[in-house]
Design a protein that fits this description.
mainly alpha
């Protein structure tokens, strides 16, 4: 009889210990760091506080989770972006292949680039709201682009030639989230090729 009681007590202790161990294991599993999400919101990994989680960029990602300066510029009236607060990031930043490549391997603590390098803004995104003819008319009397010889060029009616094609676009002068002085940006863009402050070709090598 005593032997049976000892066996019962031993089994009871073993059952209690097993239950305690199982509970401890479940508690540890619940507290363990979770893996990076694999859904469409690639920036959610960064928003969770895990700065080592890789960004999985997608068209529906929360860009503001990492790009806080750009998000803040939407409310800054000194920035051109504030005039575009009604559109989404991917309205302009819609080059999926280039955006995926530029975010590949990036984490929340990666250094943010000052300018776009791997992706460009398609001018059709600008043209969907801004008519070329309206822009030309709006800046017809602007003299900010006047060279050393007194030649004035309408910044929205730049002569079409091989030197300008593919080299000058909206983003050349209009930086939405950064430099607010668009006139200075336009002058700098022209001066990058027209070194002698003459808006003609062939003036560098005479």
């Amino acid at each position: 009889m005593r032997e049976s009681m000892r066996k019962l007590r031993g089994k009871a202790r073993l059952t209690v210990l097993s239950a305690l161990c199982a509970g401890a294991l479940l508690l540890c599993a619940a507290c363990a760091p979770q893996g990076a999400p694999t859904g469409g919101d690639g920036a959610a990994a960064n928003a969770s506080g895990d700065e080592t989680a890789a960004v999985a960029w997608s068209l529906d990602a929360d860009c503001a989770a990492c790009h806080t300066d750009q998000q803040d510029s939407l409310a800054d009236t000194s920035q051109a972006a504030s005039n575009h607060a009604a559109v989404t990031c991917v309205t302009c930043h819609n080059d999926e292949a280039a955006m995926e490549k530029s975010h590949d391997g990036k984490t929340a603590d990666s250094k943010m680039p000052k300018k776009l390098k791997r992706s460009k803004i398609d001018e059709t995104a600008c043209a969907s709201c801004h008519s070329a003819e309206d822009l030309k008319a709006a800046t017809a009397d602007l003299t900010v682009l006047t060279d050393g010889n007194g030649t004035t060029v309408n910044p929205h009616d730049i002569p079409a030639n091989s030197g300008h094609e593919g080299q000058v676009d909206c983003a050349s002068c209009h930086t939405m989230h950064g430099e607010a002085d668009v006139q200075a940006a336009a002058q700098e863009k022209c001066a990058s090729c027209h070194h002698k402050d003459v808006y003609e070709c062939g003036t560098c090598h005479e």
